[in-house]
Amino acid sequence: MKIFILMVSILLFYCGTSSSPKVKNPSLEISGSKLPLRELQDGLYAILLGKSFYPNRLTNSDIRDGESEIVFLFYLIKLEKRYILIDTGTSSISNPDITIHNWISPDKILGSAGIKPGMIGEIILTHFHSDHSGGIGLFPNAKIYVTPEDWDALKKTNRSVNSKLVAKERSKKVQFVNSSLEVFQNFRILLTGGHTQGSIAVEWLVSSGKKFLITGDECYWIEFCKQGQGLSSEATFSLSNNKEFLDYVSVLSSSGTKVLTMHDPNILSLGEEVFPRIYKVD
Ligand SMILES: [Zn+2]
């Protein structure tokens, strides 16, 4: 009888262990020891979608000829369980104006860091152009902060995501920004209205020694932004709004704020690449 009970116990033990799933992540095992799962820390990240070349006359008020390499970036802020995107990148390799080289879809890049599309709770759209807004349909739960002007422009110009935009409106997931708005403490959306009619920028004062200004496309190159040099009339909705904002950028920059843009390849050297194409910049 004792032998029978022993055999049943052994059988149950093996059945029990074999039926439970074996969680294994080979990349996390080093010489037999299991490391804790690597997670994205709280902070600010620049995310690289791809690269291309773009005419200088559209990125700088002082240079008329030639073209320069630009990168396509958007930003992620992680604060505990809160995930905020500043722009979304685009969900296709090309838009009407430009083809993005080495493009990877934004949801795939975020996925490599364990961030699923449904985890993105908020998106701040700096302006409606498709290289900034084209990924909006990838994030079903996100509330969108956008100016009414650029929301209308987005609906008119980006027909591929139009039905998703209408669904966002119906489910009350669009917050229209009509004036400067504090999204959370010391994190503000600023109306700029230079690049497009409803373009915005983002200012985040994390602490006295850690301050960021994300310019959208009001300027492209960090070094020129710091000097208050923005866009040509060809690349603006309002040259005077653009100039006014760039004056503000140069004042903030001289008092220690870190200026971040959406297309300057130098951004990638500001921080460590903690996951493929995800750079920690704070
Ligand atoms: Zn852009």
TrEMBL record:
Keywords: Hydrolase, Metal-binding, Zinc. Its cofactor is Zn(2+). The keyword Zinc applies. Residues 70-263 form the Metallo-beta-lactamase domain. It comes from the Bacteria. GO terms for molecular function: hydrolase activity; metal ion binding. Signal peptide: none annotated. SMART domains: Lactamase_B (SM00849). Belongs to the metallo-beta-lactamase superfamily. This is Zn-dependent hydrolase. It comes from Leptospira neocaledonica. The lineage of its organism: Bacteria, Pseudomonadati, Spirochaetota, Spirochaetia, Leptospirales.
